[in-house]
Amino acid sequence: MAPRRKLIVASNRAPVSYRLSDEGQRVTRRGGGGLVTALRSLVSHHDVTWIASAMTEEDRAVAAEAGGGAVEETARDGSSYRLRFVTSDPAAYDWYYNVVSNPTLWFIQHYLWDLAYEPAFDQGLHHAWEEGYVRVNREFAAAILAELEREPEATVFLHDYHLYLVPYFVRLEAPDALLAHFVHIPWPQQDLWRVLPESIRRAVHEGLLGNDIVSFHARRWSRNFVRSCADFVGVEVDDEEGSLVYGDRRILVRTHPISIDPAEFDELAVSEQVCAAEAEIVARRPERMILRVDRTDLSKNIVRGFRAFDAYLVAHPEMHGRVGMLAMLDPSRQDIPDYAEYLAAIQRGARSVNERFQSEGWIPIELHIQDDFQRSVAAYKQFDVLLVNAIFDGLNLVAKEAPLVNERDGVLILSENAGVHEELGQWALTVNPFDVAAQADAIHEALEMPAAERRRRIEAIRAHVREHDLTAWIGAQLDDLDRWAARATVRS
Question: How far apart are CA 293 and CA 257, in angstroms?
Fold first, then answer.
């Protein structure tokens, strides 16, 4: 059995949050999101202290009762871990999250700005950066440093774009700490970083270079990171080792595409809730079903997907009444105006297609806007075509989850700009996410693909996902940490 490690995990979202029930009792709610799910096995197998933002008033109460320290929590499998909340000033957290992290960094890293019109950064961004993003990142660093004082040998495992400055602040006070950072979203080409004010983009890069290891889901994101560090900070690049030299330190840059737990989806697929939802889908599904499961994020390209389906229906009137699109969308970040407007655009797009083509007993697009994971898994089992046409995506787990449990030899249509395309592209129908006509053609090709070819492709995807699962993803990163720590020991 592998030795238990002492790990400090830091992310914006915690694996659990607290609230008061109607009876006034404190209750817990398991944290959502793919990151929390992906890191669950760390808690099961290692000594983990998890540092995250306090999201609710009861989170703050828990933190206050602990005197700002950690509390003991229990994971679903019964294993225990320590949870420490960062309790930021609400205004600072709003600037950090709703002004800088989302949408500024998110928009830049997903190529979402319409540069002829936006952004136009005023003093508000600079204020939000200093009084929000920098401030909250310092608070995370202070919490990590307190935990390192308690466990000096612990490895710090940071996650995502909310915490880019934390490694720099930790490194100043703990120069020998072992720090790794996983960036779960795309890293764009260096020219796009020039949209940000020079001081901010330099701080982002210098922040990440405080780590020993920086990892991404796709090689293209890793390459872009290396190039932008060379451009903006002047690092030396060691292509043979895949590392950067910055001052007297060397930073390893790695690629590890995240995955899923196949056993979890095998169990979910036959669960009572999923089977009941599947029966409802089967009862009213058309002969052929196109599926998309997404958050209502601008990066997911939902509106263009509807336009592609519209173009397909125009070109193939013989399929009217026989094919439909099921869109299961989780509402995302509705307190940010751009996201609220995009949700409205999604609804208008679906209504436009339906008003144009629907006939008695047939509605071309069935739109569901709610967070219902069991129903999504039920839909996974029933699709004939899965449409994943993201503008840009760090990876995209739907492209791995859905084929694993699908029972109709469904075909994956996959954006070339999704990080997962590096893994699954050879078995998918590749599309340019901006080419609506090509997406319409891909829908037709997928629906007309011979059964044997459909089966060959989806079986290859399943085999790949089962071999390269979540355990392998975690293991590869821990192996990196071991090798890098051993290398540092030899140097010293």
Answer: 20
d(CA 362, CA 360): 6
Q: What is the DSSP letter of 285?
A: -
Rounded to an integer, the average pLDDT of 250-274 is 96
- Closest by CA to 420, choosing from 104, 34, 9, 13, is 34
Find the DSSP H helices in 285-372: 302-315, 337-357
Confidence of residue 195 (pLDDT cuts 50, 70, 90): very high
Report the C-alpha gap between 237 and 476 in whole angstroms.
23
pLDDT value at residue 32: 62
- Does the N-terminal peptide bond of residue 119 adopt cis geometry, omega within 30 degrees of 0? yes
pLDDT score recorded for residue 183: 98
pLDDT in tens, 397-450: 999 999 999 999 999 999 999 999 999 999 999 999 999 999 999 999 999 999
| Sheet strands side by side (includes 323-330) | 365-369, 323-330, 288-295, 385-388, 411-415, 429-431
Full set of structural domains in the chain with CATH: 1-259+469-492 (3.40.50.2000), 262-467 (3.40.50.2000)
Q: How far apart are CA 381 and CA 391, in angstroms?
A: 25
CB distance 365 to 130 below 8 Å? no
Query: What are the CA-CA distances from residue 47 to residues 54, 153, 233, 293, 485 (Å)?
Result: 21, 12, 36, 35, 18
- Tell me how crowded residue 127 is: count the other CB atoms within 10 A of its CB: 12
